[in-house]
Amino acid sequence: MEWNYENGRIYSTDEKGELMCEATFIRTENGEMNIDYTYVNPVMRGQGVAGKMMEVVAEYFRKEGIKATATCSYANIWLKRHEKQYPDILAEDTSDQAVACKIDGKH
Questions:
Q1: Cα separation, 22 vs 37, whole angstroms
Q2: What CATH class does 4-96 carry?
Q3: Is residue 68 scored above 90 in pLDDT?
Q4: Whether the Cβ atoms of residue 13 and residue 23 lie closer than 8 Å to each other
Q5: What is the distance between the alpha carbons of residues 53 and 51, in angstroms, rounded to a whole number?
Q6: Per-residue b or e along 12-27, where b marks 16 or more CB atoms closer than 10 Å to that residue's CB
Q7: How confident is the model over 2-31, as pLDDT tens digits?
Q8: pLDDT for the residue numbered 52
Q9: What is the mean pLDDT of residues 51-75?
Q10: Angstrom distances, CA of residue 58 to CA of 13, 15, 88, 106
């Protein structure tokens, strides 16, 4: 997959420009990034795309020296499961973070 990086968003599209997956994040008051939304197109689900996307997000945060937390339930669980791989990007309150799924762009 080819990854596109925008302010607050990492995503991939197919050759027709259809969104295949995306993760969005917002800067919190303390300067950390909150991953607030993840999406995988139904045609790509069950193929490990969400996990790969989170690896791309985590590597981007590592490269940029960004601490991460997540209110997106999938991203929050992924960060907890990979805390040994990415301890340098985890915000202190990741384990206590309230989570919610974002549907139609709203929690």
A1: 8
A2: alpha beta
A3: yes
A4: no
A5: 5
A6: beeeeeeebbbbbbee
A7: 999 999 999 999 999 999 999 999 999 999
A8: 98
A9: 97
A10: 19, 25, 10, 23
Q: Give the Cα separation of 29 and 50 in Å (integer).
A: 27
Q: What is the pLDDT of residue 100?
A: 57
Distance CA 29, CA 46 (A): 35
Residue 92 has phi, psi (to 5 degrees) of -60, -35
Q: What is the DSSP string of the chain?
A: ---EEETTEEEEE-TT--EEEEEEEEE-TTS-EEEEEEEE-GGGTTTTHHHHHHHHHHHHHHHHT--EEE-SHHHHHHHHHTTTT-TTTB-TTGGG------BTTB-
> In degrees to the nearest 10, what's the CA dihedral of 10, 6, 82, 44?
0
Q: Is the pLDDT reported for residue 34 higher than 80?
A: yes
Identity of the amino acid at 104: D
State percent of the chain over pLDDT 90.
84
Residue that wins the pLDDT comparison between 34 and 97: 34
Beta bridge partners of 18: none
